[in-house]
Design brief:
The protein contains 4 helices and 5 strands, in the order ββββαβααα. By secondary structure, the protein is of the alpha+beta class. It has a domain of 98 residues: 2-Layer Sandwich (Double Stranded RNA Binding Domain), CATH 3.30.160.20.
């Protein structure tokens, strides 16, 4: 028997264990030993109240199969015993959360002063947006009416100065000035 709350217990026969191969922590016993554990709880057949069953289905999320079987797996530790203990602890925590009835929500209304503040804030923001949109429209109209600036003439590309070749230098330095 697994004690969940003071008045709620789960029979060991409702849980089936299966050990599968897995990588242990720090990659030890890699695919050699079946150290990971999978606990399976058939929610429909378990001796739980119907409201708790519904909450377990909701809290289980993707760990609940389409057949209504909750699968809790643990493969974090190197030994079967530690993984079994961890998986059972996770199952008990989930069942405790499901056993606690949710607190009913009480509908409330905001106070009139809060409503007034929110309304004035919205009005101020709306006025700010309207003012900004008006300026944008006017500036667009002015831009269309203004004459287009004259285009600058394109600058001519001038070849960068280059150094004279050796041949030119030798001609300049020669005593022959016939060139």
């Amino acid at each position: 028997m697994i004690q969940i709350t003071s008045d709620l217990r789960l029979d060991d026969r409702d849980i089936s264990e299966r050990f599968v191969r897995s990588i242990g922590s720090r990659s030890q016993n890699t695919r050699k030993e079946a150290t990971a554990v999978e606990l399976r709880l058939d929610i429909g057949k378990a001796a739980l109240p119907p409201d708790v069953k519904a909450r377990v289905m909701a809290l289980g999320g993707r760990h609940v199969t389409t057949d209504g079987v909750l699968i809790v797996a643990s493969r974090a530790n190197r030994s079967q015993a530690e993984n079994r203990r961890a998986a059972r602890a996770r199952l008990v925590v989930l069942l405790k959360r499901a056993a606690a009835a949710p607190k009913p929500r009480r509908a409330t209304q905001p106070e009139p002063s809060v409503r007034r503040e929110r309304r004035t804030s919205k009005q101020q923001h709306s006025a700010l947006n309207a003012r900004g949109a008006g300026e944008t429209r006017i500036s667009r109209i002015e831009a269309e009416a203004a004459p287009e600036p004259r285009a600058r003439p394109k600058a001519r590309r001038v070849a960068p100065p280059c150094l004279p070749s050796r041949r030119q230098i030798s001609r300049w330095t020669s005593s022959d000035t016939s060139w």
